[in-house]
Write a sequence for this structure.
């Protein structure tokens, strides 16, 4: 095993732990809606939410990095360049994440000064990490880019997938630099902040996961490189074609010119089209292989990725993307519902799929199957779909009662929060979050014990 | 746009995209299974999709341009699964080289020199 692949296992381990932290703080955040006195004076809702969302970003990022560190040496036939730096930075990364979490939980707030921005919280949604930690992330991403590009240079060769990945890493790093400025004009600040948030999630990350899925497909189904690369180019072109100017759907109500209503609405309305193409592709691949594979959980999670991406990002996004609807729906639980489903479908399922591929290789399993992964697959997906359904109901109430009827006044906000449908939606969301958490626990158990059940799995393989 | 119209339009747009997805999946399954019943279900899904598109066009307060977008998207949704499928088949049919069927770790055919 290459050192890069050993590092990948560490990244996956850290990602799984952070997945758990994200789930725990999601559960806590959900409970605040049922009992607003919960942890009063100890841990405010916004801190729990910050940790929930930041760990989401970090666990996915670690999952992506783990995937690339896993596939890269095999793809280019040599050890990853500068692997020592990557190994050292892994521990720095984990330590930094732990320190930031401790500061968020125990310090929580700083003053309105530079010191608070540097050491406590930058105060910008989704990139709240203090400036020193954000600088650390830049260093880690630069080294990550060096690892990929340096390996290709040292190997004196590249592949279509690696070339796409190398090109993608440049905007990935540059866009993160937007996390630093503290612009005092709210509109200008949000304008650029959305470049970071949207263009990471709906452009650079889409390309990154596209590359990872392409590499995984070749390993999982033995799909030929030519086919995988052809489709990677097509899908990346379509996703970027619709996703980049789809950025405009975040510009509707932040003080930008009104032409963004047309641009944002038009391009984001096109976003479901490439996602439908991916779904058809997934059905084709599954049919070509008759759903036969040596790693069933990896295949099923990959299928979940294609379908979840279409439904979560495509269908849920399409509901609220036209400005007429978005006027009432933005910032409600309706949007939260879309965010949960889209992140799950577009990214989380893909990372879990690669995790199972890595486990099969590291534990020398001829065949990966069993019942545990099915339970976790069912509970995680049922919990997630149920949560998004419940959030959708609550979001409808907010859009209708609070925004459209009440005109977004404080009284209307209270009416919306007290509406029985809203409250029931929040209760259902919490209960389904428990189902999701159960699924996570089973997933971890399966991942930890998969090797121990190897003799039984080998027997199944032999029987076939 | 009234509050009720907001909810109705949002829901209809979601249903519109969902039915397009169901149409695409069922159409693809028809190609795999060659089962007429799935083909009928696929046609029914697209029929419902068209019906929802008509409701959006006739009864929602969206502007003319957005309604044109709905019509255009419906046509693309209709053509997308067959087009994607044909392209997939062509790519797979063209794929004859045994060399390319090796795993990613050994395939070198498309590796270009830097």
């Amino acid at each position: 095993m290459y050192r890069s692949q050993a590092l990948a296992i560490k990244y996956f381990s850290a990602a799984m732990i952070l997945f758990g932290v994200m789930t725990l703080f999601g559960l806590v955040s959900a409970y605040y809606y049922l009992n607003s006195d919960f942890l009063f004076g100890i841990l405010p809702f916004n801190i729990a939410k910050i940790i929930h969302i930041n760990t989401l970003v970090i666990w996915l990022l670690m999952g992506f990095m783990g995937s690339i560190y896993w596939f890269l040496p095999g793809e280019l036939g040599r050890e990853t360049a500068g692997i020592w730096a990557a190994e050292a930075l892994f521990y720095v990364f984990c330590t930094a994440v732990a320190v930031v979490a401790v500061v968020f939980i125990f310090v929580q707030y700083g003053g309105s000064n530079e010191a608070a921005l540097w050491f406590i919280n930058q105060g910008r949604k989704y990139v709240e990490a203090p400036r020193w930690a954000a600088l650390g992330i830049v260093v880690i991403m630069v080294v990550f880019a060096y690892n990929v590009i340096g390996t290709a240079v040292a190997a004196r060769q590249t592949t279509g997938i690696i070339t796409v990945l190398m090109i993608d890493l440049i905007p990935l790093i540059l866009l993160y630099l937007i996390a630093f400025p503290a612009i005092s004009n709210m509109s200008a600040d949000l304008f650029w902040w959305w470049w970071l948030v949207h263009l990471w999630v709906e452009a650079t990350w889409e390309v990154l996961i596209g590359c990872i899925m392409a590499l995984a497909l070749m390993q999982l189904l033995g799909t030929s490189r030519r086919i995988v690369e052809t489709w990677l180019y097509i899908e990346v072109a379509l996703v970027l074609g619709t996703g980049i100017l789809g950025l405009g759907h975040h510009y509707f109500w932040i003080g930008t010119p009104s032409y963004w209503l047309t641009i944002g609405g038009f391009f984001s309305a096109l976003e479901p089209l490439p996602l439908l193409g991916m779904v058809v592709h997934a059905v084709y691949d599954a049919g070509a292989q008759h759903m036969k594979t040596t790693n069933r959980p990896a295949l099923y999670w990959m299928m979940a990725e294609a379908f979840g991406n279409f439904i979560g990002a495509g269908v849920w996004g399409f509901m609220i993307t036209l400005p007429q609807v978005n006027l009432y729906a933005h910032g409600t639980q309706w949007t939260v519902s879309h965010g949960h489903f889209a992140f799950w479908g577009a990214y989380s399922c893909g990372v879990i799929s690669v995790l199972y591929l890595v486990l099969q290789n590291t534990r020398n399993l001829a065949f990966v199957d069993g019942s545990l992964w099915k339970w976790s697959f069912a509970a995680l997906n049922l919990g997630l779909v149920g949560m998004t359904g419940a959030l959708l109901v609550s979001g409808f109430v907010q859009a209708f009662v609070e925004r459209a009827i009440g005109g977004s006044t404080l009284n209307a906000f209270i009416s919306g929060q007290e509406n029985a449908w809203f409250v029931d939606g929040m209760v259902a969301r919490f209960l389904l979050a428990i189902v999701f958490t159960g699924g996570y626990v089973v997933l971890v158990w399966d991942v930890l014990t998969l090797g121990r059940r190897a003799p039984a799995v080998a027997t199944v393989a032999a029987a076939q | 746009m009234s509050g009720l119209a907001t909810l109705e339009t949002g829901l209809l747009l979601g249903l519109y995209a969902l039915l397009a997805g169901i149409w695409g999946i069922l159409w693809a399954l028809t190609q795999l299974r060659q089962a007429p019943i799935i083909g009928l279900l696929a046609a029914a899904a697209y029929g419902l999709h068209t019906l929802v598109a008509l409701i959006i066009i006739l009864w929602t307060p969206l502007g003319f341009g957005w309604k044109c977008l709905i019509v255009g998207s419906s046509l693309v949704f209709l053509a997308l699964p067959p087009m994607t499928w044909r392209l997939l088949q062509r790519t797979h049919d063209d794929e004859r080289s045994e060399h390319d069927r090796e795993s990613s770790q050994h395939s070198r055919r498309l590796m270009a020199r830097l």
The mean pLDDT of chain A is 91.
